[in-house]
Amino acid sequence: MDLKSTPIDTPLAGTYRPPGDKSVSHRLAMLTGLARGQSSIRGFLDSEDTLNTARAMVALGATIDWTRGDHGWDLEVHGGDLHPPEGPLDFGNSGTGYRLMMGVLSALGGEAGWAGASIRLIGDRSLSCRPMARVIDPLSAQGAVIESSDGHAPVTVMPQRLRAKRHVLNLASAQVKSALLLAGLSAKGTTTVEEPAPSRDHTERLLPAFGVEVIRHGPTQVSVEGGQALRAGHHEVPGDISSAAFVMAAGLLVPGARLEITQVGLNPTRDGFLTICRAMGATYQATIDRRVGDEPVGRVDVQGGSLVGATIAPEWVPLAIDEFPIIMGLAAAASGTTTLSQAEELRVKESDRLAQMCSQLERLGVNVIERPDGAVIQGGEIDGGEVDCGGDHRIAMTFAVLGLVAKAPIVIRNAHWMQTSYPGFVEDMNALGARLEWLA
Ligand code: S3P
């Protein structure tokens, strides 16, 4: 389905609460499914990606009762007693569900009923192009047996008893780190993961709430001891800063806009977007006002005004890794030049985000130079026109935001991909004064 975003002449205004955090929802679905007994999750994200993970847990033997909550889903999960699934587990578009599950399953060989099992993990076309060796190789070094099609999905996991290991990663990746920590829970001994730079730390923050001791040696090194049983409990999901980023960006771009973003996760390993906006001259105030589990949550008040281009420091990249489509969009609307480097990881996300963003911005008359590891964007006016999101939810939402301030409407082809992470995006934006309209 195509979406039309029309420039607005009345500023956006109002209060907005983002949907539940995708990373936390995936992890909670897995951890409550693994923990023996009755757990609950409030505010579970209603999106294709997270529903696929929950369905996978059901295929593995967890029972889930679903109720529509005030915000997203409220889940009652009966976990433990898992068994190999009858068919393949389908993760659709979700790299997080897929990679974390490889970690979980590869290590279950010592559990009753799992020895000799063979579990196939599948995904959509985009997921099947994304690199999986980054998880398969370190797990194999612990004794995992995972067959793949040359390091890509579909993979077949044959659960084993894993040995613990100290891993030194050459990439800051929360998905890889989390897959190894989750496998480490079932390995014999201490599993340690060291990264070159901090990545999001939701797994480390969640595990203690399941009764698991996590040893953090600093921002880039973490260990877990194998053989710790997970304890059932009650959990809540903070608002997703990565979904809120689109709304904040709209608030920053539309002159005179004033938005209050509430209940948003402000974990310091996820707030690179705010740092980058600040460097681009944005006016906002972020305040932490409570904790949801071990996650800081608060509000961000944003004000529309003019942005300027910036040089994005490489250390900000992992802390804003999902926000680069919208950051590149902001750069296109800012005055001056924005330079992004050491961001080659963006080429292996739901799409090649550097190529897709550069080519589609160019279609709207933006002056862009694509580089192997980033881009140089000359900001200014954005023409109306037609773009394709390349099957990427975050690129679809980025162009929907840019349409509000372009010279003429922007039509986003195949914008239904936003269902991957944020099915309510159009309604939420329109409630704040945007003009987004699905075309038949
Ligand atoms: C995620 C980690 C990030 C991010 C993804 C979610 C997670 O990937 O891009 O959307 O939940 O762990 P990498 O850790 O591979 O960079």
Quaternary state reads single chain
Give Rg in angstroms. 21 Å
Unreliable spans: none
Largest sheet: 4 strands, mixed
* Small molecules (ligands, ions, cofactors) in the structure: shikimate-3-phosphate
Strand order of the largest sheet: 22-23-1-24
The whole-number mean of residue pLDDT values reads 98
Number of strand elements: 24
The domain tally reads 2
Structural class: alpha/beta
Number of helix segments?
Answer: 13
CATH architecture of the largest domain: Alpha-beta prism
CATH topology of the largest domain: UDP-n-acetylglucosamine1-carboxyvinyl-transferase, Chain
Work out the strand percent: 25-35%
CATH superfamily of the largest domain: Enolpyruvate transferase domain
Output the CATH class name of the largest domain: Alpha Beta
Distance between the termini: 7 Å
Query: Outline, from the CA principal axes?
Result: globular
Overall helicity: 25-40%
